[in-house]
Give the backbone structure.
Amino acid sequence: MGMNGVLQAVLWSIFLAFPSYGVIAVAQVVIGLCSGGSQPAFAALLGSTYGRDAFAMALGLASMLMLPFTFAAAPVAGAIFDATGAYTSAFLLQVGCFVAGAAILLIGFRRHPR
């Protein structure tokens, strides 16, 4: 999961360089693969951390915690665009969130290897 966050940060950073359409398309495909691959990895991480008996509760609580961020992301990006006239700050915020999440996961994994 930590490495997925690092890769996502790199891929979202590509948009800050205003690349060509082909580069954007490839980056979006890889972002989609990372996002789709993060779901089973996240479930496995929860399962290994909290165990079989608490898995459903952990997944439910994690989903409830993530829900506001999921629904707020697009309106916040739109508000940033309306305020600044560009998506640069929104992309930087996205990259920053991925970097922070990756750091938390990679440091946590380093302290508690399985």
